Amino acid sequence: MIRVMSLTKRYGDFTAVDDVTFTCRPGRVTGFLGPNGAGKTTTMRVMTGLTPADAGEVTIGGHHYRDIPNPGRHVGVLLDASAQHAGRTGREILALGAKLMGLPMSRVDEMLALVSLSDAESKRRLRNYSLGMRQRLGIAHALLGDPSVLILDEPANGLDPAGIRWMRGLLKDYSERGGTVLLSSHLLNEVELVADEMILIGRGKIVASGTKQELLAGRGGGSTHVMALDIASLSTALTAAGLEISPAGDGLRVEADPVAVGKVAAAKQLVLTDLRPAEGGLENLFLDLTADTQRESVTPEGVAV
Amino acid sequence: MTAPAVNPAVDPAVNPALDRLPSIDVSSTQQVPFGRLVSVELRKMTDTRAGRWLLAITLGVLIVAAGIVVIISLFDEQFSMTLSDWQSMLTFLTTLLLPTLAIMSVTQEWSQRTGLVTFALEPHRLRVILAKLAAVTLLALITLALAAVIGVAGHALLAATGVDISWTADGKDLAWTLYLQMVYFLMAFGLAMAILNTPGSIVAYYVVALILPNIVYGAVYFLLSWGPDVVPWVDLGFAVAAFRGELPPVPSGTPDLGVGPVLSTLTIWVVLPMAIGLRRILRTELK
Among B18, B29, B119, whose Cβ lies nearest the Cβ of A73? Predict the structure, then answer.
């Protein structure tokens, strides 16, 4: 539904977005992941016609954004939840959007209920909103026109864990009804939980894309965390099978994929109580892929915005 | 390590099936009607504290000024006031504060970053700017009408207190007052478009609309030999006076300048800032 084709955006000598091509399909949540300054926001601004591209193009549902009449009815956009007049109430901000899009004012109340902003909260001015409340309001604004495409820049930023879970449910539900979602984040955990597909970007270039499984598979097998009732027999069996093991908590870390470990256990009829790809596989991949694009020493949490 | 290849499922260069991505049918969606854009812009000018206070204070100032005139008339036997005097006084008062509203209508999209939403909901920026211009013009006309009502009411009060007044008004005076008022609003709007910054635009407006005419131009006109030849071409008030043949006399003889100064001042203070501003707004990036 969203097609980005050979998109390039330069600022002087600096190439913010470098020949970026990707696609977001309906019914899927696509995560746009990369460290700060990687080009996510610039790409999204170009998508929505706020920034002109130097080369390449973006189409949404086959149209350039500029050519979509009353675009709020087709594409929900949240680029920065704080980019609203600090003196307007949340309700007034939604009312202005609804009025412009030609929607009934009842839509404002529906959206406030959807994002769990209470009546009292909706009458507060934006400057008194926490970042989490601004994000909820921003998501409500993006959904006002009942669009079929959502473009959200760092929507989970500032949400508490319950808020992130709520957003995950909301976006899953939205995509299951056929909607297309593109959301960006610099935090892997946020995207990993919500996105069906991921696009990793670093220094303006796409470094990897695909589902979580595809991304990990592309690494040539990760390591596995395994636990068993009889851990001693399992370690003997794994060592005998030529696999490299190391103790990890109550279980073992095996330098092989879960299938290989499971096969060994099955052959020896050992009961496994846990078998999964070792933690951090995707995180390591993310950091490896974007390592040379990080601003400072690598921290998984990225740099606070 | 080697990065995983770009997933063919999402790469249209590899997966031609993506050319058949579903498209959005926009044929039944209307463009946002211009009138709706205007009414939203009007609402945006009046739904913030700054907007409401500017309107309330202006209304208060108009009423207080009218009251002061009536009180003075009670104590001054020689007092006389024409309808045109009323209009020029009250109109001047509206130009003190309200052009700030016109300025903020433009600059807030940048200072409060609401442009990110405004221009995403209407990507045709020229339409947004025209809607703002229409909203500002409407607001100016409404305040002028309000000033007129207050002026007439004040005049009626004078009559009631026994001041000898006339109800005839000079249509030309009124028309030129209206003209200047509109030009001040449009100038504020144009300067805001060119400067795109609230404090900067407000300072520029007050320098051009208040400080230069009241402090600088008069002195230059009367004290410098080239004053009478230059000032009418740059000052809106002198330009109108020149056109109406009412330039103050100077020893070297009052020049007869015709319509030229009116056009040149319009160009300098309205057309030029708007042209520069439009170029900026159409090209600038919203961040």
Answer: B29
